Amino acid sequence: MRVKVEPLSQWLDVTVSELLSPEARSKAVADFARAALRDAQETNRRSLGSEAPFEQFVDGRAGAALESVDPDRGRIVFEFELINDVLQWVLAALIERSPRRSGDYMRGHRLFADEREIAADGEIPPAAEYSFTNTVPYTRRLEIGKTKSGRDFLVSVPNRIYERTAKDARARFGNVVQIRMTYRAVIGGAQVNAEKLPVASRRARDRRGRFVAAGRPHNVSTVRFPTITVTPN
Predict the structure, then answer these.
(1) Within this chain, do residues 97 and 195 fall inside the same structural domain, yes or no?
(2) CA-angle at 60, arms to 54 and 61, nearest 5°
(3) How many domains does the chain have?
(4) Averaged pLDDT, 128-152
(5) What SS3 string covers the chain?
(6) Is the domain of 196 the same as that of 101?
(7) Looking at 61, 81, 101, which one is the last position of a domain?
(8) Using one digit for the tens of pLDDT, what is the confidence trace for 44-67?
(9) pLDDT average, residue stretch 120-134
(10) Same domain, 126 and 225
(11) Phi, psi torsion values for 73, nearest 5 degrees
(12) By residue range, what is the domain housing residue 192?
């Protein structure tokens, strides 16, 4: 028999004595599952500050009683809805660390689900990956500390906003989601990984007037912005 607690994605095998009756074996598995659930809820409380909602599946049946698990080949799964809390925490941290002189940067944080932009304050669709980025013109300079005093930012704002937020989010939620910092382009409202950008070769004429490759290939779009990715385990 097996018990699984999402999003840890780890099956816990449960062995009970065959000398027990079927009802007693099912109860033993149910007791084990409750203990695993309590541990997961405590982990969530430490990370999120509150208990996260979850769905319970017993042998594929949503909401079924734990004691109804098949005593020999049963499976119990608890699926927690954590991603919304993680995304809202990351967004709040980015906003809190943003310069406020014009508010352009603070309002410029964008959320993507599987590289398609979605509303951060709307319904969050299921996705294999979520990511935040900011495409205001001076985002890269602000991230690496090459900003000057001006209308849209203040030199007093600490740099590496995305890097620091990713580090803090990883320390807080790293046991339930994967979080990393990277740089990505945004083309036509969609976010694109660097390795997915179209590549073109530089061409020039040789002595015979023929076009030949000249120099190293380059990405058609080279503007990449700081990005925090959040991947459910």
Answers:
(1) yes
(2) 70
(3) 2
(4) 79
(5) CEEEEECCCEEEECCCCCCCCHHHHHHHHHHHHHHHHHHHHHHHHHHHCCCCCEEEEECCEECCCHHHCCCCCCEEEEEECCHHHHHHHHHHHHHHCCCCCCCHHHHCEEEEECCEEECCCCCCCCCCCEEEEECCCCHHHHHHCCCCCCCCCCCCCCCCHHHHHHHHHHHHHCCCEEEEEEEEEEECCEEECHHHCCEECCEEECCCCCEEECCCCEECCCCCEEEEEEEEC
(6) yes
(7) 81
(8) 777 666 677 788 899 999 999 999
(9) 90
(10) yes
(11) -130, 30
(12) 84-232
What was the pLDDT predicted at 176? 78
Asked whether residue 76 falls in the same domain as residue 34, the answer is yes
Structure tokens at 59: 């042998």
Q: What is the pLDDT of residues 147-171, one digit of tens each?
A: 554 444 445 568 899 999 999 999 9
Single pTM value for the model: 0.65
Domain's final residue, options 81, 106, 129: 81
